[in-house]
Design goal:
Helix 7 packs across helix 8. It contains nine helices and two strands. The longest helix is centred in the C-terminal third of the chain and has 106 residues, at 174-279. The chain has a two-stranded antiparallel sheet with strand order 1-2. With 280 residues, the chain is an all-alpha fold. It has a domain at 2-172.
């Protein structure tokens, strides 16, 4: 945090000095410059700055810096705003998600015109294509790269900061990256083992369910068989009972008929005896 604060203060100080030099260049002579001092600078400091900006040492350094800037193949339109600041400005207000690196890069390195956005230089456009391709690849990646990792992968490493992110953002150290890789490998291995265990559990559960259903079906068949046997046995007993009842009824009927026949025969014999006696 201390380093970030110091870097930020240094950047703001350089931006302030640049505004002072811009004000200095508005006037053609030193006298006019001295007469048109900025209100946020004391007379003593402004006198020193005019003398400093007019010195041969400063002019040589300024020309050298101009030549170095002319050699730059990548230019941007965000002024003193860093990649991280632009990233925050275009964060989705609803979801809170940051824009992808390719989207931020496009805003930083293009001019907005009526016909759309125009790239400042071919190199920026080429880098945007690589960023966009790498961002699209993360959708199907089990361990997607972060925005900083995508920038570092495309732009390369730079000692002390993440290229494209401006001040304050430090790159991941080699040890930290190794730790991240180890954790990712362990996490991946754990996930594989968990998936295997889950698959084995699901297979075992399906087998147990199938076995349980088979046993239930067998028990159902056995129960229906026994129930049918009991029904058949009960029906047989009912038939035997009914047959026995019919036999008894028939025997009683036969017995009664026999008794009636016996009585009739006895009466008939008596009637015959009486008839014979009368004839005699």
């Amino acid at each position: 945090m201390d380093t970030f604060v110091i870097d930020t203060l240094q950047r703001l100080f350089r931006a302030w000095k640049n505004r002072l030099h811009t004000h200095y260049k508005k006037f053609p002579t030193d006298q006019e410059r001295l007469d048109n001092r900025r209100v946020d600078v004391t007379p003593e400091n402004w006198n020193w700055l005019v003398e400093h900006y007019s010195s041969d040492t400063f002019k040589v350094a300024s020309e050298r810096n101009k030549r170095n800037r002319a050699k730059q193949v990548i230019r941007h339109t965000s002024g003193p705003r860093s990649f991280a600041e632009v990233e925050e400005l275009i964060r989705d207000p609803t979801t809170g998600e940051k824009a992808t690196p390719d989207a931020v890069w496009e805003i930083q390195h293009t001019h907005k015109t009526n016909g759309g956005r125009v790239w400042l230089d071919p190199k920026s456009k080429e880098i945007h294509g690589r960023l966009k391709e790498l961002v699209s690849q993360q959708k199907d990646n089990q361990h997607p790269l972060t925005g900083d990792e995508i920038l570092e992968y495309v732009l390369g490493e730079k000692s002390g900061y993440v290229r494209g992110k401006g001040y304050g953002k430090k790159p991941i150290t080699k040890r930290a990256r190794q730790q991240i890789d180890v954790e990712a490998s362990v996490s991946s291995a754990i996930k594989v083992i968990r998936d295997q265990m889950q698959a084995e559990f699901d297979r075992k559960l399906q087998e147990d369910c199938a076995e349980y259903e088979r046993k239930i079906q067998e028990e159902r068949v056995e129960y229906e068989r026994k129930l049918q046997e009991e029904r058949n046995e009960l029906q047989l007993k009912e038939q035997e009972k009914h047959a026995e009842l019919e036999r008894k009824m028939q025997a009683e009927i036969d017995q009664r008929i026999q008794a009636q026949l016996t009585i009739l025969m006895s009466n008939f014999q008596q009637l015959n005896l009486c008839t014979c006696d009368r004839r005699i």
